[in-house]
Amino acid sequence: MNLDNFELLQQGAEAKLYKGIYLGKPCFAKERFIKSYRHPDLDTFITKERMRAESRAIVRCKSVGIRTPMLYLVDYKRRIIFLEYFEEHLTLKDYIENYSNPKELENLAVDIGKLIGKMHSISVIHGDLTSSNILLVKKLPLEGFKSENCDLVLIDFGLAHTESSAEDKGVDLYVLERALISTHSVANEIFANILKGYRENYKNGFKEVLNKFEEVRSRGRKRTMVG
Amino acid sequence: MVIAIGFEGSANKLGIGIIEDDKILSNCRRTYISPPGEGFMPKETALHHRQNILAVLKQALDESGIKPEEIDVVCYTKGPGMGAPLACVAVVARTVAQIWNKPLLGVNHCIGHIEMGRFITGADNPIVLYVSGGNTQIIAYSRKKYRIFGETIDIAVGNCLDRFARVLKLSNAPSPGFNIEQMAKKGTKYLPLPYCVKGMDVSFSGILTYMEERSKKLIKEGFTPEDLCYSLQETVFAMLVETTERALAHVGSKEVLIVGGVGCNLRLQEMMRIMCKERGAKIFATDERFCIDNGLMIARAGLEMFKSGSRMKWEDCGITQRFRTDDVDVIWRKD
Q: Record's InterPro entries (chain A) (predicted)?
């Protein structure tokens, strides 16, 4: 596989993102190019670890039916992962800002919470939950984006790891809350509904995780800050 | 035309600066330096500020060439910071405001850094990396607030570097971070260290513990103190640049501004410059005069607040050790 017939879509934070065809299917190639600002040893280490993390988390999520992009090929040498490309998709960020109405958003947020609850119940920590890393993908090629016609898809598992501790799950929720607050004016309502869904789908763990979440939150928000 | 005087003393730097709109009139500073192997404590730091503040005030007024009557507003650091040093500087600011019969404004220290950085560099709407001994935050402006996108979930990056300097018993003059930076320039051997990024948040306490526990052994095994400084800097700065890049991509911004004491580290600036170049963004940074805590930054932020109509009741002009960057309504920005 080479990227000759691929089109550069954008330069994300960690990788250059290309679109192309892989074995006849629309495909998304994620090239974690060399970051020359950091030490080569550190760069190689981080890149390998992230590629491995991403592939593992995808496989693990798939096993319980959480929708993620399909994994086509992992090429460590050239630092590229080939993934399924979704033709009709929207990031949650765009959806919140441009499409949603309050009722629809409430249901969607509960569904997102359920999804995260399910992911945590199999001990997958995403590590970078933001509204840019949750996609709405159309089930049918209908006009416009209505959340009931869409599947929720989790992407960008580069910072993921497997961990059963409540602490890491709490941090995962905290990262999401913070990302929502800094991006969206309706963040508080969305997050409250996410927790509602989370509770529903992670019955035996949510209590402990929510306690940890509150603890992490108080560490961040009220921590003494000097100088 | 508005003239503002700013008093800063939230940590071990004592600074007073005077600004007339976009013209810097003076910016004087003294630093309390603790012995090698020790950090600065609130009591001793406050004592230092008490002993020096009137001399610094006189110097700032003399250098500016203005008389107290010409000042329009007295600004001081309300927080965040260490209680005792904050309080003793606030007392002086309150006193002169009454003697001169001028309005008084309490300024958020972090906002002071951001507004100073924007003023000096001309950055318009940047992602701000605020890195100092007490704070590590990645900030972007949106909807009348400076919003915190990422931050440390435990200790600040400057605290991590300062405390490692104590392990090596480096001098605290002019600052422990500066001495680590000089040592790191001579380091050659890279030691892999824990690397801890969680989304846009970072954590440094694990790295510090790792270094504290192993430094002696590593030095016996052939690593020099210079190698350790180099490896530590490379690791923690890579974390900061990575999370800043995440914020850039998430927000879709093309500007990065580095502020705070650690921001004058040239290696951090260099790494950030390379990252920015790779994605067509622009970096803005300042030198130690404006990066490290100073009085002028408080005057500058206070000036912006005053011009946009901000006034404080006398009884609100206290201090607070905990004062979040996103608690302040940024009424002076029009975007």
A: Bud32, Kinase-like_dom_sf, Prot_kinase_dom, Tyr_kinase_AS
- Test mutation, A8, A171, A182, A217, chain B, max B CBs within 10 A: A182
Domain that holds residue A202: 89-222
Q: Among residues A75, A111, A128, A168, which one is catalytic?
A: A128
How many folded domains does chain A comprise?
A: 2
Q: Do residues A70 and A128 both lie within one domain?
A: no
Q: Which residue of B has its CA nearest to A36?
A: B274
Q: Interface pTM (ipTM) of the complex? A: 0.89
Annotated active-site residue A168? The verdict is no
- Between strands B197-198 and B201-202, the pairing is antiparallel
Residues A70 and A129 in one domain: no
Q: Which among B82, B241, B275 is the nearest to A226, CB-wise?
A: B82
For chain B, domains (ranges, CATH) are 3-113+291-327 (3.30.420.40), 125-288 (3.30.420.40)
Q: Give the DSSP letter string of B294-307.
A: -HHHHHHHHHHHHH
Helices (H), chain A: 40-63, 92-98, 102-121, 166-183, 187-201, 206-222
Per-residue pLDDT of chain B (335 residues; tens, 9 = 90+): 999 999 999 999 999 999 999 999 999 999 999 999 999 999 999 999 999 999 999 999 999 999 999 999 999 999 999 999 999 999 999 999 999 999 999 999 999 999 999 999 999 999 999 999 999 999 999 889 999 888 898 899 999 999 999 999 999 999 999 999 999 999 999 999 999 998 888 999 999 999 999 999 999 999 999 999 999 999 999 999 999 999 998 888 999 999 999 999 999 999 999 999 999 999 999 999 999 999 999 999 999 999 999 999 999 999 999 898 988 999 999 98
Contact flag A37-B274 (C-beta cutoff 8 Å): yes
A112: domain CATH number is 1.10.510.10
